[in-house]
Amino acid sequence: MADRLLGKVALVTGGASGIGRAIALRFAREGAIVVIADQTDHPPEGGEPTRAILDREGRAAIFRKTDLTSEADTEAAVACAADRFGRLDVLVTTAAIGWGGRITETTLEAWERTLALAVTGVFLASRAAVRQMSGQVEGEDGVRGRILAVGCPTVTATAPGTAAFAAAKAAVHELARRIAVDHAADGIVCNVIDPGAIVVHRSNRPEEVAAAERAAARTPWRRPGRPEDVANAALFLASDEASFITGAVLAVDGGLAAH
Ligand SMILES: NC(=O)c1ccc[n+]([C@@H]2O[C@H](COP(=O)([O-])OP(=O)(O)OC[C@H]3O[C@@H](n4cnc5c(N)ncnc54)[C@H](O)[C@@H]3O)[C@@H](O)[C@H]2O)c1
């Protein structure tokens, strides 16, 4: 199967790097017009910017420099997609960063920085998307738009030392469920993907390294997760193949949460 997102307009937050980059690449290669909303176009892991790769391949993609903790910036990114391409079919929220460790090691600043992006950023992008999508003509399947939040199985697989991050991701899970319930009548589908230990560029902050190593050690499956594993699941949930799936959480974690 090819062109599974042909003609759809998708906005991917955090699409410059890691999982968001893999999702943006996969969506565009499946025929979507992709808007990458990120604070930078340059992947910290190195290499060409996502949009440059897609330009070279003749795919439709634009980069929109966005601070996802800013209401004005985030609303402008959603408006940019809708104004330029006529509608917004899919929002994927991947941008998130976790700071701090256990609650006793978490400063108020670290707590606020974590929630500003991982919760408020998801809230702002999702609110703007729901407002935009609710006014659009619905597809044959009755869907006006799809929202996909990237969570984390720290919520289900107890992870020590991630107080702010785990709290943020729990909030994202619940926010996605509320969107699914409150806006089903508006034709909005909303789901969560929980990636497990996915090999991406990492900072060398000790708590981040420790959390990644712990998750990898607890993963039953025999190889590390790849950003493409998450992109494959995102593709399904963003496509017309998924319409009666809403308010759900799909783990892409090699069995981590089940362990
Ligand atoms: N990598 C994993 O193992 C893993 C596991 C579970 C969940 N996740 C989740 O997957 C998502 C992506 O993770 P990743 O590892 O690919 O991350 P990443 O660090 O590679 O990418 C995050 C992106 O967010 C962008 N960003 C950061 N702050 C921003 C801001 N204020 N405004 C706009 N953009 C901003 C960064 O520039 C970057 O491109 C996150 O939600 C993360 O919690 C990742």
Question: What does this molecule look like?
Answer:
Helix 1 packs across helix 7 (227-238), helix 3 (71-85) runs parallel beside helix 4 and helix 4 (108-134) packs parallel to helix 5. The chain is α/β, with parallel strands linked by helices and 259 residues long. The longest helix has 27 residues, at 108-134. Helix 2 (50-56) links the parallel strand 2 and strand 3. 41% of the residues lie in helices and 15% in strands. A seven-stranded parallel sheet has the order 3-2-1-4-5-6-7, sandwiched between helices. The chain has a single domain, classed as Rossmann fold, CATH 3.40.50. The chain is built from seven helices and seven strands, in the order E-H-E-H-E-H-E-H-E-H-E-H-H-E. The protein has helices at 18-29, 50-56, 71-85, 108-134, 163-182, 206-217, 227-238; strands spanning 9-13, 33-38, 61-65, 90-93, 145-150, 188-195, 249-252. The mean pLDDT is 93. Bound molecules: nicotinamide-adenine-dinucleotide (NAD).
Which labels suit this protein?
alpha/beta; Rossmann fold; globular; binds nicotinamide-adenine-dinucleotide; 7 helices
CATH class, anyone? Answer: Alpha Beta
Helix proportion of residues, in percent?
40-55%
Ligands bound, unique = nicotinamide-adenine-dinucleotide
What class do helices, strands and sheet pairing give?
Answer: alpha/beta
Q: In total, how many domains does the architecture comprise?
A: 1
Number of strands: 7
CATH-defined superfamily:
NAD(P)-binding Rossmann-like Domain
Overall average pLDDT:
93
Biggest pleated sheet: 7 strands, parallel
